[in-house]
Amino acid sequence: MRALILGAAAALLVAAPALAGPVSLKANPVDIDGAVTLGDVFDGAGSAAGVVVGRRSGPSVVFEAGQLQAMARQAGLDWTNPNGLRRVVVRHAAAAPADAGSPTTAAAPVAASFAPAPRRSAYADRIISRNDIVEVLYEADGLRLTISGRAEGAAAEGQRLAIRNLQSGRIFDAVAVAPGRAVAGPAARTHQFAAR
């Protein structure tokens, strides 16, 4: 009986993935073929680099950080998410330079959309839910533009959220101001601070 128990324990140890050590998120994650792998997302993924975590059908795909962290853990990787990111955007490798022009500027818009949201206690405070169609107003220097986009997450009034432009497919930051409405640009800062 003792040999049976020891054999089962040894089998569990072999089956469980050994942690490959801490990994870090790439500054500008990209993939080539639409199959997004841990190696596309993390530096230091080692033997888990080929593990597919999702599929990209457009110019980019957005992962919830918590889900990405869980998938990395299942593959034996340890990502602590030290910056408290909410989302990770992975772009097509060919589209990444065209979006920004240089690696340093390419990383800036992506990082800006990952800023942790102000903490809200009640789910009922949300005025925009994930996948809602949102009318976004951009106003600056006398210019006033309105576009429609799809919410990539939920938000309460005054809270930042990522919006996907329905025409271009690009993701940008906005601030929720009412059900189905948000603002972007300089006016977004005013609404965000007013809600605190």
From TrEMBL:
Ranges that cross the membrane: none
Keyword presence, Ribonucleoprotein: no
Domain (Flagella basal body P-ring formation protein FlgA SAF) ranges: 125-181
Any single Pfam family the record assigns to this protein: ChapFlgA
Signal peptide: 1-20
Highest classification ranks of the organism: Bacteria, Pseudomonadati, Pseudomonadota, Alphaproteobacteria, Caulobacterales
Protein's name according to its UniProt entry: Flagella basal body P-ring formation protein FlgA
Keywords of this entry: Cell projection, Cilium, Flagellum, Signal
Top-level lineage group: Bacteria
InterPro entries: SAF_FlgA (IPR017585)
Keyword Signal: yes
Organism listed in the record: Brevundimonas viscosa
Gene3D superfamilies on file: 2.30.30.760
